[in-house]
Automatic annotation (TrEMBL):
Official protein name in the record: Alpha/beta fold hydrolase
Entry similarity comment: Belongs to the ATP-dependent AMP-binding enzyme family.
Domain AMP-dependent synthetase/ligase: from-to ranges: 375-765
Pfam family, one: Abhydrolase_1
Entry keywords, A to Z: Hydrolase, Ligase
InterPro entries: AB_hydrolase_1, AB_hydrolase_fold, AMP-bd_C_sf, AMP-binding_CS, AMP-dep_synth/lig_dom, ANL_N_sf, Epox_hydrolase-like
Top-level taxonomic group: Bacteria
Ranges for domain AB hydrolase-1: 69-310
GO MF: hydrolase activity
Length: 923
């Protein structure tokens, strides 16, 4: 039997804890399953002393009446210290006049500074222990439980046993079910294999848990977590917790875990799950399971967080925001919650209006042109012998229907997620439209994210099926991605088994042919989710952007109307989304010979050959691709120049495009009108401007530069034109400290965050509740708005100008400075190819540093020579900006997808290190 140790208060001086929160509570122990009002004596049990954190006294001193109680339950090997930020945030919120929440954070018996009873406490006992405590504290609801790790299970046990008191549940990484066909996590298997040595005799388990925090825990916080467990006999509870993990159905806690897991699926109260996917114990597999049980839950995945998510990220503020959104000032009776990770009622209603049954679906032209021998899709690199692969409308339509039936025969259902790791090609196009037709959700995370970004995206998207070429299947096998696997090519049997491949795309087609009489599912409703498209990851981990069928058809129609693209149009698409939209537009689309992961490798000859093959009148290229196309123009033959002369519309988007670059491109396509659409993955077409429009805009700017009344700085940037026919644009002004204001304006010359509204705007971000809340801050019933994260202003003619990204603004002692205007001025300096303006120093007193990439490739990074530095400073001074330092980088870091979006955040960190005397390495 373990040694009995009394409860005690924590030592003084632990960071983040107010001593007034600590309490010792004597709690009668009742038999498992006892009624709340059963007397302890009748059960023949004992009294245990608990240590808890409780802000009730603080709320009383503030005169604040709690609207409810947040019951926080830690896991192993932490203690109530884990929840100190929740206690502090709730107390501060009450002091600020917001709804007051009482927070009770427990030290479970045998853990933290609670009593060591020396008795075994399996899961059912711990669930009863928590009920005994809340009874002793006279907690009568409404209660929102908040659990982490094994404390998540225990908190859910309390939740399902107290339906009359329960108002909601919040969870950090935890699990309620272990799949029968999946071994328990390796970290727990290791802990079980060296149970007493690793958890009790030594501090190995405790130290390992604390070591996996991201970033590394400060030493004083690490000491605070260790403080209850300094002696071996105070670590008995750590070992007992690990031993209580049900490894099979015969374990004494297996039945209780199964009871809780089943009951959780019947909960209808609002739920919030905040998750760290870098957790080696509770991976996304367990989040997926919890979401299946509580599909109404709001979910936010913090890509950089792991097991100790409460230490890795700011979670307490979002938790209180969620409580405020869900309950306001008074939690009411439990009602089913609407999820922020499903299309909102507003979004669904708008989608049904926008894309009613009278609006042709995305596959409309595949039906109307089903017998046409004319080319629909052309792959410039996929055909035999190096010749283009040409797919007619008739063949494409046939293949789409065969793949659709084959997928249904293989068990793909409406609402299933199908991750497509297929390069832009006729194969990808056919699979996309087959999935759309049967109501499966297309997940597109392209190779342009890089291996690490791609892996994060696919795992986070939780696909039910993966269709991929061998490299993607290999990564899926190595990283344990979920989902049935289908190979694009037919693989040898040995390879297929090694990669867990069910069948090939050819096998899907054969299954579809065999099932030619199979009736396809009813076409999906406009409000049904159609696709999850991932952002480029240029300003953080790539985000999954969810579109409904109604929103995709609205996007199609917006593109068609803006650029007169329709049946018979030849479209050269150097950017995958536009290649996939070709069939929806009825356009003949051709993908040029290029490496999609490196757009800057596209040559003028490749574009010209693609234009000739498709008799193209529309060309879409990324800014990085244009730069290389212009640079390789001398290689064009007479016939290739003639093909480019047939282009009537030239589009480029994805990053700011300079007037000089557009002018150079227009010389290659002399009969084309150059346009730069403004948009993002969340809304691919929000505004548009032509080259002539850019010239007139910049001329107006030169003649009359407005001043931003909020920040006090001259406004500049890149003109992106007027909103499209169905788009509205507003500005959320920035204050002098760089904070985004609550009001929206369409006044001229006011710099702030760009906020847009359109029928073809995305529905929401996938499993990013916090991001959704910020992005949708101005959305109301019947009106969807999206905060883009871009900073800009409207001019007196109603044209939109982009000045940079919100996270890249520079906040000096004089106010806000946006980077793009400075960069454009510097890029006019002789010898400068690209420039980036970043802020160095504390926010509010930042200094402007300009980093340049020169036209002549440099072998190393360095401080700029005096003449270059002087020229850069003079260029910036023309806009009223003083530059503190000028650095030369061999190459500016950009995103992989576009090769155009400069990573200013990385450059700022690099420049700060250099100017502090660090090594002169490349950024």
């Amino acid at each position: 039997m373990s040694r009995v140790r009394s409860a005690s208060l924590p030592p003084a001086g632990l960071p983040g804890i107010d001593p007034s929160w600590s309490r010792l509570v004597d709690v009668p122990e009742r038999a498992i399953g006892s009624a709340p009002d059963a007397p302890a004596a009748a059960s023949g049990t004992r009294t245990n002393r608990w240590h808890i954190l409780d802000n009730a006294a603080d709320l009383a001193e503030l005169g604040a009446t709690p609207v409810g109680t947040i019951l926080c339950v830690h896991g192993n090997p932490t203690w109530s210290y884990l929840w100190r930020k929740t206690v502090a945030a709730a107390t501060d919120a009450a002091a600020a006049g917001r709804p007051a929440w009482r927070v009770i954070a427990v030290d479970q018996l045998e853990m933290g500074f609670s009593e060591r009873t020396g008795l075994a406490r399996p899961l059912a006992r711990r669930v009863q222990d928590l009920a005994d405590l809340t009874d002793a504290l006279a907690v009568d609801g409404p209660v929102v439980t908040f659990g982490h790790d094994w404390g998540g299970v225990i908190s859910l046990g309390w939740a399902v046993d107290h339906p009359d008191q329960l108002a909601g549940v919040m969870l950090l990484n935890t699990a309620v079910h272990q799949p029968d066909d999946v071994p328990i996590p390796a970290a727990l298997r290791l802990a079980l294999s060296v149970l007493r040595t690793g958890t009790v005799t030594t501090t190995a388990f405790l130290d390992t848990t604390l070591a996996i925090a991201h970033p590394r825990l400060p030493s004083d916080v690490r000491r605070a977590f260790r403080s209850p467990y300094l002696e071996a006999d105070r670590r008995e509870g750590i070992g007992a917790f690990v031993a209580d993990i049900p490894v099979d159905a015969s374990h004494e806690s297996a039945a209780e875990l199964e009871r809780i897991a089943g009951a959780v699926a019947r909960l209808t109260v609002p739920a919030l799950m905040m998750w760290g996917p870098r957790d080696p114990v509770f991976s996304d597999r367990y989040l997926d399971d919890l979401q299946r049980r509580m599909p109404h839950a709001d979910v936010h995945r913090f890509e950089t967080a792991g097991h100790l998510i409460a230490e890795d990220v700011e979670y307490a503020g979002p938790a209180l925001d969620w409580l405020g959104d869900r309950f306001g000032s008074a939690p009411g009776p439990a009602v089913p919650a609407a999820s922020a990770d499903a299309a909102s009622e507003t979004s669904a209603a708008l989608d049904d209006i926008v894309a009613s049954e009278t609006v042709p679906p995305m596959w409309h032209h595949l039906e109307t042109l089903a017998h046409s021998p004319e080319p629909a899709v052309v792959d410039m690199v996929a055909g035999p012998g190096g010749s283009p692969r040409i797919v007619s409308w008739a063949l494409l339509s046939t293949r789409v229907h065969q793949i659709a039936r084959g997928l249904v025969a293989l068990g793909v259902k409406p609402g299933d997620r199908v991750s497509l790791l297929v390069p832009p090609s006729a194969d990808l196009t056919a699979v996309v439209y087959a999935c759309l037709r049967i109501g499966a959700i297309v997940v597109v995370a392209d190779a342009g994210l890089g291996l690490r970004g791609l892996s994060r995206a696919v795992r986070g998207a939780r696909p039910d099926h993966i269709i991929s070429e061998v490299p993607g299947l290999t990564v899926a096998r190595a990283f344990g991605w979920p989902g049935q696997r289908i190979s694009v090519a037919t693989l040898p049997a040995v390879s297929a088994r090694a990669l867990n491949v069910t069948t090939s795309l050819a096998g899907v087609i054969r299954a579809g042919k065999a099932a030619h009489e199979l009736e396809l599912p009813h076409p999906p409703a406009p409000s049904a989710v159609a696709a999850v498209l991932f952002t480029s990851g240029s300003t953080g981990p790539a985000k999954g952007v969810v579109y409904t069928h109604g929103q995709l058809t609205a996007l199609r129609d917006a593109l068609s109307a803006q650029y007169d693209v329709g049946v018979g149009t030849g479209l050269v698409a150097g950017f995958a989304p536009f290649a996939l939209l070709g069939p929806a537009l009825g356009a003949r689309s051709v993908t040029p010979d290029m490496n999609v992961t490196s757009p800057r490798t596209l040559t003028a000859r490749a574009v010209a050959d693609a234009a000739a093959e498709a008799d193209a009148t529309v060309v879409f290229l990324s800014p990085a691709a244009i730069a290389n196309v212009v640079a390789t123009a001398d290689e064009l033959s007479t016939d290739q120049r003639a093909a480019l002369a047939g282009v009537r519309t030239f589009l480029s988007a994805g990053a700011p495009v300079s007037e000089a670059l557009l002018t150079a491109a227009s010389e290659l396509m002399p009969n084309a009108e150059p346009h730069t659409p403004y948009g993002m993955t969340e809304g691919l077409l929000m505004a548009d401007i032509s080259l002539d429009g850019i010239r007139s805009s910049t001329a107006s700017l030169a003649a009359d530069t407005p001043t931003d009344a909020a920040a006090g700085s001259a406004v500049g940037g890149v003109p992106v034109g007027r909103p499209t026919a169905t788009t509205r644009v507003r500005i959320a002004p920035l204050d002098p400290a760089g904070a985004v204001g609550a009001d929206l304006t369409d006044a001229a010359g006011v710099t702030g965050e760009i906020v847009v509204s359109a029928p073809h705007l995305k529905s929401h971000y996938d499993r990013l509740w916090i991001t959704n809340r910020l992005a949708d801050a101005h959305s109301t019933q019947g009106e969807r708005w999206h905060h883009t994260g871009d900073v800009g202003h409207l001019d007196g003619e109603g044209r939109l100008w982009v000045e940079g990204r919100l996270q890249h603004i520079i906040v000096t002692a004089d106010g806000v400075v946006t980077p793009v205007g400075i960069e454009q001025a510097v890029e006019r300096v002789d010898g400068v190819r690209r420039a980036a303006a970043v802020g160095v120093g504390p926010r509010g007193a930042q200094q402007i540093v300009v980093v340049v990439e020169l036209s002549v490739r440099q072998r190393r990074s360095r401080l700029a020579e005096p003449a270059l530095a002087a020229a850069v400073r003079e260029a910036a001074a023309s806009g009223g900006h003083e530059v503190a330092a000028v650095l030369v980088a061999a190459t500016l870091p950009t995103d992989i997808r576009h090769n155009s979006k400069i990573d200013r955040a990385a450059l700022a960190r690099w420049a700060d290190g250099i100017l502090r005397g660090g090594r002169m390495v490349s950024p």
